[in-house]
Amino acid sequence: MNWLTLLMALPLLGSVVVAGLPKGNEKLVKQVALASTLIVMGATIAMAVSFQRDNVELQFVEKYSWIPSFGINYALGVDGLALVLILMSTILAPVVVLAGWNESHGGRWSVKVFYILILVLETMMIGVFAATDVFLFYVIFEAMLIPVYFLIGGYGTGERSAAAVKFLIYSLFGGLLMLASIIALYVMSGAQGGHTFDLAALSQLQMSSMTQNLLFLGFFIAFAIKAPLWPLHTWLPDAADSATPGTSVLLLGVLDKVGTFGMIRYCLTLFPEASKTFTPMILVLALISIIYGAILAIGQRDLKRLIAFTSISHFGFITLGIFAMTSQGYSGAALYMFNHGFSTAALFLVGGWMISRRGSSTISDFGGLQRITPVMAWMFFLAGMSSLALPGMSSFVSEFLVLVGTFTRYPVHAIIATFGIVLAALYILIPVQKALHGPTTPGNENLSDLNLREKIAIAPVIAIIVVLGFYPAPLLNVINPAATHVIAQLGFSDPVPTSGGK
Amino acid sequence: MTFNAPVLNYTLLSPILILLGGALLGVLVEAFVSKAMRAVTQLSLTVGTLVLSLAQVWRIHNEQSMSAAMGSVIIDGPGVLLQASILIISIISVFLIADTDHFTALAAALPGSEEERHSLESGNQVTEVYPLTLFAISGMMLFPIASDLITLFVALEMLSLPLYLMAGLSRRRRLASQEAALKYFLLGAFSSAFFLFGMAYLYGYSASVTYAGIRESIVGGSGNDVLLLIGMAFLTIGLLFKVGAVPFHAWSPDVYQGAPTPITGFMAAATKVAAFGAMLRIYYTVFANAQWSWSPLLSLIAIVTMLFGSLVAISQRDVKRMLAYSSIAHAGFLLAGVIALNKAGLEASIFYLFAYGVATVGAFAVVTLVRDSSGEVTDLNRWKGLGKRSPWVAISFAGFLLAFAGIPLTSGFIGKFSIFSAAYESGAKGLVIAGVLSSAIAAFFYIRVIVLMFFTDPSQDGTSVQLPSILTRATLIISMAVTVVLGVYPAPLLNLISHFSTFIR
């Protein structure tokens, strides 16, 4: 059974149905969109159940010739990492639809267009993680920008069109650098036994270390813009500030993961030597991201920008875990990607509700929400605790694994990164204190608490955060074999922990 | 002295002969058919001629011949493909030309004169644009299959002269249109002179005007290389002028802006196919062995053309000028296909020419629709909020722009990818990097237009989108469909091209 194609086809089908619905019936549009995303989620879970977790090979493989003259295939397949990310994307999609039930109303276009864009985007989110043909990956990687561009520019707030353009230009620039690298790979494959874009075949190419370094940079810069890594992050706060909360969840939670996913799937696999060459530099950038994102988050007065900067810090951790080149670091990074999706979703969604109720996104406008809207306040508090990686929350496990994995090879880096955790406590606890606790400030007296729809939307997110915090084994069992496999392929073995005393 | 009657293979030449016949009939129609029936007769005659010619091209698509016209014309796979592309692009362009509102009622009347006013009021619209178009197309059809320099020059003039006239036919802003025509004519004549000069030197070098003869001399290497270099340089200048490459591009923004929009679309798309078709044949067959003499300089020109076109387009405020600079940038990309000098480069160029030509006609079709009471509105600031007023027109224009920008799932991406990979394969890495860079720059101004259309609130200045006529609608739908289908599933066309794209020599 072609599971992955089915997964990609379902949201697309949903968008066609939505497009065909009669005008004016917005409720029906939303219901159909929600139903489509729920069906996709169900199908993904059904697929995930039949995933063989000890098998490190790609699974659910499909391959059809697409453009034979260039050796391009429509080739799909998932390993543990891709499966986890697809699972995350398809769980977040219905949450976003349900949580942002009314966020399409302030847009330039109709509600219908909003959900068509969301559903098309979901198809591409699945495809980008499932593609095993580099050309197919690139096509989806670039084409994804278009729906997001219209989602930010059409339905956002404030300087939405400027933010949308900034996002698009940054991403296109990175994408074109990657295209140059892809062309080079394609031409080299032609000289070494036939044109192909197959990831596995391309990873066998022989190339000089100079070439490898240059091509690595082409890919890495594209992914570092996407992820985003300091100093290529400047588009993110603007985009997150302008986009609707739901769009931000998809943007930071899923799309930015394509960056870190790409580093693992493409940079490490295609250019193992260059990855090692650039590791010291990348680790430094990751550390700067961790600290810089955290410090700027502390300084933000705007709730949405604050969440955006916390994400920059978190992406620093993920990058650190990836390039520590240990299986713990890798597992931690993979788990971190999953968890970050949910903790950011919780922050953005609850934050979005607070903002739309209060009519302002400035943190100092809030105060004493704990008394007026206890459920909303608790949800924000939990989301915040997950973001600062409190033990018992899922993100603690991943952050811990990243730090352990880093420490065994790069102790100094790990110690510096630990400061990020301290700063995280600050950037979360300050807004929690200002907005939730203390006396109720004027303007907040009449805010309403979460309604049933919002509670239903946020419940699975919080549940996942807490359950995986106590029992991360289901995910780690899927990720770990892949992690060990990748690290071994790169020619690394995990350093043996020494018992000290030397 | 005996005189040998020329032996012509009429079947192989029939696509061009049909066009010439149709054009001559068009002249007669202009003279004899009544005013009321003229426009519709001309239109059906022109479209009929083009379709017949296309059918004839299909009939000869498997033929290969060096001797169709005494060695002056080569019929081979690439020639047939280019001819078919020119015809398809011409058909959808003629649909736009059918909207007589763009054309002056009486081109011979002075702008603003009593005579002009009278012919407009009496509805006495002349339709000489149709036979002119057919003459131009027949020249374009001959250009890429010519196999000696004399025929090449005749074809060049055949396609150019009607275009000079057509550029001056605009109904509104006639002075600008006539200025454009004159500019195009003077600079075109100038470049023809360069072209002839180059021909003379090549003759001096090889004592032959046929492609085969010149190639033999180059392969033999016994001639005077100075003559060859001068000849190649001047011939190239003539060709680069036609495709609008820097530094021979100066005419194109003014002509694009001044000419009636349907003509601009036709010219931008079909002339490029013809001119690059001829260029590909000359460089791939005649000059191939002198690659090291022309390749570095041509690469430099390609790089400068890409970057210049993209950079200057950013500052344009007029949509037709913007498209003109974008077409300059695309000429640079296409030059990369010429420089590649391998089979992949030839295939990529043919694909790119077709895809780009169709999208260009589509983009200009949209331009013809945006109007106010005094005609077309080409000021980009007045395109604000177009997406709100007429979403479908705006969406299709956005689609064409995304194709120009080379965004995946459009034909432009496949074209760009194939041409860059061919250039990379031939070792022209600098070209690829410049191409990627200028694509990034170009994306910026294409996106700016999308922002204007979709993310800016409309201003109340009487700009409106005319309801497209059936023919314009057909052009829009066909070009959009081609752009998307070639982006999503280009395999059939690529296979076809790869099957046919070998020059015989």
TrEMBL record, chain A:
Pfam families reported in the protein's UniProt record: Proton_antipo_M (PF00361)
Transmembrane segments: 29-51, 72-101, 113-130, 135-155, 167-187, 214-232, 278-299, 306-327, 333-355, 375-398, 410-430, 456-473
Main location: membrane
Example GO biological process: electron transport coupled proton transport
Entry membrane topology: Multi-pass membrane protein
UniProt cross-references to InterPro entries, sorted A to Z: NADH_Q_OxRdtase_chainM/4, NADH_UbQ_OxRdtase, ND/Mrp_TM
A single GO cellular-component term on record: membrane
Transmembrane helix listed as a keyword: yes
Compartment(s) where it occurs, according to its Swiss-Prot or TrEMBL record: Membrane
Domain NADH:quinone oxidoreductase/Mrp antiporter transmembrane: start-end pairs: 131-423
Entry annotated with the keyword Isomerase: no
Any GO MF annotation of the entry: NADH dehydrogenase (ubiquinone) activity
Key words of the record: Membrane, Transmembrane, Transmembrane helix
Membership in a protein family: Belongs to the complex I subunit 4 family.
Stated name of the protein: Unannotated protein
Organism annotation: freshwater metagenome
TrEMBL record, chain B:
Membrane topology, as annotated: Multi-pass membrane protein
Xref: InterPro entries: NADH-Q_OxRdtase_suN/2 (IPR010096), ND/Mrp_TM (IPR001750)
Record keywords: Membrane, Transmembrane, Transmembrane helix
Signal sequence bounds: none
Keyword Cell inner membrane: no
Membrane-spanning segments: 12-33, 40-60, 80-98, 129-146, 181-206, 226-251, 263-284, 296-315, 322-344, 350-370, 391-411, 431-455, 476-497
Major place of residence: membrane
A single MF term (Gene Ontology): NADH dehydrogenase (ubiquinone) activity
Cellular localisation: Membrane
The NADH:quinone oxidoreductase/Mrp antiporter transmembrane domain, residue ranges: 146-441
Pfam families listed in its UniProt record: Proton_antipo_M
A Gene Ontology term for the protein's cellular component: membrane
Keyword Transmembrane helix: yes
GO biological process: one example: ATP synthesis coupled electron transport
Name the UniProt record assigns to this protein: Unannotated protein
Native source species: freshwater metagenome
